Amino acid sequence: MATLNNDFLGYRRIELVEYPGYLPKDEKTVYEMIVSRMLEAFAPACQKEFIRMEVLCGEETFESKKSRILFQGWRSVLNREEDREDDETEEKNAEFSEGQTAPVSGCNLITRKTLPKPLYTEASLLSAMESAGRQLSDEKQREALKDCGLGTPATRAAIIETLLSRDYVERSGRNLVPTEKGIVVYNCIKEMRIADVELTGNWEKSLNDISEGKQSPETFMKAIEAFTHQVTEEILSIDFTPETGSGKTICPKCGHGHFQIYHKIAKCSDSDCNLFVFRNMLNKTLTEEQLNLIFTKGRTPLIKGFKNKEGKIFNAAVKLADDFTLKLDFSNMDERKGNKKIEN
Questions:
Q1: Which domains can be identified in the chain, with CATH numbers?
Q2: What share of the chain is helix, strand, coil (3-state, %, to 5)?
Q3: How high does pLDDT run on average in the chain?
Q4: How many whole angstroms separate alpha carbon 262 and alpha carbon 268?
Q5: What predicted TM-score, i.e. pTM, was given to this entire model?
């Protein structure tokens, strides 16, 4: 329960008169998110001052844009760094008048390295999906995407969770970091039509035209069918080359294919041979050298750092079993050194 007073952030204040008491960590996080969102919803608007200055020096024109916060409003509730925009500055803007002239006191060249854009957080990625299409050159497409973006409010969070569950991105603190798998997929499709944000703009524009009677649904569906054929052909034409493997090791099962090593698996190049193995075993990722030893010698030397289900660390070799699966091998180990046999 909450009561409103008229001095919160210069406008009104919300006082919580009932507290939830003890909450588990996850429930407390959800509770705090709900409360903070409600406070932001009732808070006044954030007020900013913008200044854009053009300076003519000789035949060259220089432009500067800055802004500063005059009144934080809703932004003072959480005071999050990700709400800060690139052109914001804490410094007070100087006062200028149009047409004012000033002498040039000096000039110099500064060499700097450009910095990459910051990594997305879940919040900033949701915001980017919501505002996708602002950079489109076609005004009608941009207008069609203005109120929808990529996905819907109900599906955007699920899209991010799908990217995480399929190992396209992973969490690193608050940031979302692309994995090797995600980078490979991006490099394969970045020039394809399926990755073109204008495609969504075209569809939204066509749907608007259908609702206004300017286009028939049949025409739209035929365009979708043609697009589906084109995208499918593009995707099927992708040649996923191995990420690390040289492809020189002969497959021990079929005898003529070559093993190729990918991010998660190693498999035979022969499409008729179904031999493949997963690289990850009990908290360890097998290296290219170890996999080549398995497929040529049948066994690796001792590998340190395996972890069982109880979290205990142990050492073992890895061998290729008769059924062409990978198994832990303790046959050449001295168990008196503390290595006990653990079933894989």
A1: 2-83 (no CATH), 122-236 (1.10.460.10), 259-337 (no CATH)
A2: 35, 20, 45
A3: 77
A4: 11
A5: 0.43
